[in-house]
User: Fold these one by one.
Assistant:
Number 1:
Amino acid sequence: MTTSSDISPVVGRLVELTPDAEADISRLLAQLTDEASADSARISEMLALSHCHLLVARAGERIVGMASVCIYTIPTGRRAWIEDVVVDARWRGRGIATRLVESAIDQARRVSPCTVMLTSRPSRVAANRLYRHMGFGSKETNVYKIEV
């Protein structure tokens, strides 16, 4: 019998939102934040955008990790924002988040030069350690939000 420890998840771009994928994404988002849930219309809209990529780590048919990256150009240069990096609690500690972030960075490299940005709450100690280990540095700035 194959166990989860025998499976090495494969990272790739999600191109179609199936009911199973939506359920897996919903489960992952619940582990990331209380502020968001999977919305099939919003996810389908994202999948249709050429400059946004929803990257997923699949173990067999299940999505066990995800990250999103959106790339855009502004007068001061090209940016890529990585968001929603989350790995299912049962699959953490296996390098999946690293592979997801590396895949997001690879998407940005295709349009380089590009500055890759991400945010992470200070309480996410392991995630912040990972990002620093991968070469990200903190930026002296504030991030604000407003719902419109």
Number 2:
Amino acid sequence: MEAIVLVGGLGTRLREVIPNLPKPMAPVNGRPFLEYLLEFWIRQGIDHVVMATGYKHEVIQNHFGKCYGSLSIDYSIEETLLGTGGAIFKSMEMLRENNPFFVLNGDTYFPIDTAKFMKFHQMRKSDMTLVLRTMPEAKRYGSVSIAEDGKILEFRPPGHGIPPFMINAGTYLCNKDFLEEVQQNRNRPNPVSLESDLFPSWISNKKSFYGWPTSGDFIDIGIPEDYRKCQDMFRTIKDINSIRETR
């Protein structure tokens, strides 16, 4: 299985805490956050990732190199900002298979039941499926409205809707041929945002676009307050073990 990991953002909100590092490389208990993320997905069977890099890409490349444990790594480097959608399109050129692939936000950690998620994607014959995390409030995050079968109906801005909320957890399962078709049919130049440009168009055009709600430990290091909380949260999560010794 393969994944594209989005690690190219500028991380401006976290810059005051880690001024010289890309956000996914922020240290958590002495280790880069990105190590924890990759190790979870290695355990799920991912054997190849494409890092969609940009800001300070050399920090990530120098740390991980071409492999991390059993994981083979390629790097797609943005010379100019492409947006999340543009970063995915560029990275897709380095994927080795035509099977569905994962897209992962490099600054969030959410250990899910991957087998159930993939089964849901297959049963719904979905072109793209989002992992949705249930939350008691959504002041920081926008929320997602879905039909009974999980089809995505609407993305709401932060603070709108009725609790409990479902937020986009930053983990996607995508059909490669669908995204290749989307890329070919676009008549607008980059940058293109997955969240602001592509998602709304898929809803309006009634694409096979679903959300899979679940719960569990959700860690986002996007702002200093949550980054500090992350240090304690990782100490309590079971089954987090470094594989650096096997590199």
Number 3:
Amino acid sequence: MRDAVAELLGGPQPELSKTIRAALEGRQFGGILGEIPVLGGDYFASECCIAINLDRTQPPDQTRYVLLTTAAYFEFLPFDLVVNHGIAEETVDCSEVEIGKMYEVVVTTCRGLYRFRRGDIVRVLSFHNLSLELKYVMRAPKATGEVFT
């Protein structure tokens, strides 16, 4: 089987490999997309909808999300690598978060998922009306395999 596929493909193509690698290097995909804009989407998970992007014209790295507080009950674990080597023990709710601080998102859904740690670190930017405005920062460091609080 391997020989048949290799024959069909014509063997290794180092020049094509270099071209593809050069187009994919870095965070910009201009070599592939050209003038096609890359836009940020909404913040969804298989567990629930978390937040929506109100300005779809922004690139993904500048996307600001507004938390959908009616989609689930959200709690936040304070996150600071310097102070507590990552994530704190006690959660805070939407009314207790501080603007400018980072948190790991914890979700409780109406379908029975209880205090699920999403593993996403977000920064609270401000409020949009009465909802939190968030920016996705990174995935939480894996200290343990535990995902429920």
Number 4:
Amino acid sequence: MNKKELIKELSNKNGLTRKDNELVLESLIETIYEVLAEGDKVHIAGLGSFSSRKRDERTMVNPRTGKEVTVTESVVPSFKAGKKLKDALK
């Protein structure tokens, strides 16, 4: 399901217009981006937790050339599913 399909499904379920649901979804996504950029976590009960974590510098091997390459330290997003989501997928 892509974003457009999700907005359509939300509109069918909650009675809001597609435009209103799109604004809500965009606001949610933007807020999560901002909170993670500040180094904080976002916990949505029943869904899970979004966080950012530091990935240390590491050495990897380029599969095409076989040469070692150093990958610099970076910050990456992380999501941990909540119990309710995990149970729904069983």
